[in-house]
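Document type: protein sequence-to-structure record

Subject area: structural biology

Format: plain text, a pair of labelled lines:
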Amino acid sequence: MSPPSATEATADDSPGGGLAGALPSELRAELIAFRRDLHMHPELGNQEFRTTAVIKHRLEQAGLKPRVLPPGTGLVCDIGMDGWDGTRPFLALRADIDALPIPDTKSAPYRSTFPDRAHACGHDVHTTVVLGAGLVLASLARAGRLPAPVRLIFQPAEEVLPGGATDVIEYGALDGVGRIIGVHCDPRVEVGRIGLRTGAITSACDRLEISLDGAGGHTARPHLTTDLVTAAARVALDVPAVLSRRVDTRAGLAVTWGRLETGHACNVIPQHAELSGTCRMLDIDTWRSAPDLVHAAVEEVAALHGAKATISYIQGVPPVVNEAATTRLLSEAMTARQGVGSVEGTEQSLGGEDFSWYLERVPGAMARLGVRPVGDTGAARDLHSGDFDVDEGAVAVGVELFTAAALLDAQHRA
């Protein structure tokens, strides 16, 4: 069940350091094996029992005492708590551990062993990076060289709206935490580099489900019916247009449909139609007002065509808004370990990430971890695609980034 263990890292006093040069080859090999093991055994949100067990086992091997969360998936683990007075806030490192319900179409020997699940978003890498950083920090703590506690958070169900982060917070994972950091794989960024941005780095993402109902009938007499096919088409076309004139365009609100279903026969006007899609936006204030705006727009357009609308607006996650001081911390840590030029700017993504819920409570930031092979000029294997994979050199880069950030954060708080 557990990948092979390896020798522990050694510590030094290099600026932002904690590793004697690069990550030791034994630990690097172990972590790659660990990542591949997770990749072969993906588990969906709130079903990550095996994943939780192998993380717990490896942390216990390092002399740590991880605590599995009440539902049995996900865990937290504190490092260096001896001597903590209970008042000084400390740093948390967060990883998400769930996979996606899509097939793995790669031919790699470590591809998923399940036909309908894949780590196509890089959560196996995120998990391995936090585990590796935890092993290094635990070694430093045993040597009396970790100046402040660090908490590891292995979070379930990031892919399940509104995200497992809300449950993790409810279970007290942020108690005592003063700052939190995370990474997300980015296939556009070369390995050995990270992308950073102060302010919003992701967008809000909500889910929208609409049912339209009305009197159907014969296509020969549409004037005696509620023409639901036309009504559904107009909702699909006109609602985004209406919203574009009711929201500041700089908020980037976009309603995009993924499903429209209605009717069964060419000469029958149906009595029921359904649409579903997503509502994304760049601005957190717009996210808070979006449900009322969308409800009003849908009801107005549906009413114009005599259809009764039933609307389910499922608010997902707010944008991840990187705090300036934490963003600088990550930049300083990356530069200390990977050199000048290892940090690049990045644009705000329209993707959603439930890391944002942590940032509603404590300051923090997320970096985009480069996973693209150096010099690769081909088309990137995009996130959420069945052939997604990474340059595994990103694992060591992420471990060094998190380790350096933990030590720098402690220095800043001293």
